[in-house]
Fold this protein.
Amino acid sequence: MTGPASSAASIPDLAGGPVLELREVTRVHGSGPTEVHALRGVSMAVLPGELVAVMGPSGSGKSTLLTLAGGLDQPTSGTVLLEGTALGPLGQAARARLRRTCLGYVFQDYNLIPALTAVENVALPRELDGLRPRAARREAIAALEAVGIADLARRFPDDMSGGQQQRVAIARAIVGERRLVLLDEPTGALDTETGEDVLRLVRERCDAGVAGVMVTHEARHAAWADRVVFLRDGVVVDETGRDRADSLLGASR
Amino acid sequence: MSVRHALLALLEEGPRYGYQLRADFETRTGATWPLNVGQVYTTLARLERDGLVEAEGDDGEGHVVYRITGGGRAEVADWFTRPVARTQPPRDELAIKLALAVTVPGVDVAAVIQRQRSATITALQDYTRLKREAGEDDLAWSLVLDSLVFAAEAEIRWLDHCEARVRRRAREPRAAARPDIVEQREVRR
């Protein structure tokens, strides 16, 4: 870790501060002649209600960024903050707890547990949080409602379409108080239209206040984000902003 | 773009006058390709000359109302059956710019590509936002937006491809110039 931990662990500003912040994050794999810089001094902040897409070719550092953001790996230098708390100085247990309670993952292949129903899949993280099964179930139903498939609560993943399974995965990622969703090619396994439904849903959840980081190599999907960050060789080379008038098609629409 | 056929197709739904045709056209296509009313009347005059529409008379408020003829209907049917021709590729400033960027010495090709990619993604974000606002019900307009989305996406994929090729070329020892290839490059008309 670089820098004094005290300056990194600034006072959490849950009202308007970033849900996720990366400060000069570098991740080096290996050492000596085989040393690979997966990320080099990447800084970014994601605010509540914001969806940020990360684009780049394979090997550009996209996945490393997501892994570090989710606290599954530690940077070689730099700081990752979740809801204003720097992950580095935390012990492993505290880090795991923070990771578990404030963020959710959505993967390309849904990663649902096949032996559990939709509602059980979504309730599981809340039970791991220490909630009683009944309360966890209630929250799970609420999350399934938020993604529009409360009626499928008792289905098993195998009895659902890909689009439905991905909705369950999104519900699982946002259940409870989770304010950050990390999405890894969430529409990769879906056809164009179903993929778009999923993105519409992610967008909706972000508009409702969740912060999202989505790794994708598809421009059409990245376009649902407020900002698009371009990674090349572990460096942010460019970024499109959110504040832009709808000037392209004239003012008539 | 065939304004002629678009207007004929609208007249299939029933007689209309110039301003109505323009408004209907723009409703379907979201004003993506604005028409001026002069263009509408010139086109109507030509369609009348060719016997595809006929003036039905005044609507009482000074508007000349046009109606489609049998010949006009046949022309519309034919238009819908025929694929749009991809003849001569239109002059594409971006392709020309990149072709020159990779050959003219001293140009930062990666920067050219990235600047374009950012601009096109920004356009794509705008289209996507418009699509979101359009909702599911406005099928015509949302399909036009899809067309813009897919075209922008294709451009970005092409830029990614250009970048990968330029980078690969930079890593490889420079191949000897191949003047023999140049002759084969003319795009077929």
The longest strand of chain B covers residues 53-58. Chain B touches chain A at residues 26, 30-32, 34, 114-115, 117-118, 120-130, 132-133, 141, 149-150, 152-153, 156-157, 160, 163-164 (CB under 8 Å).
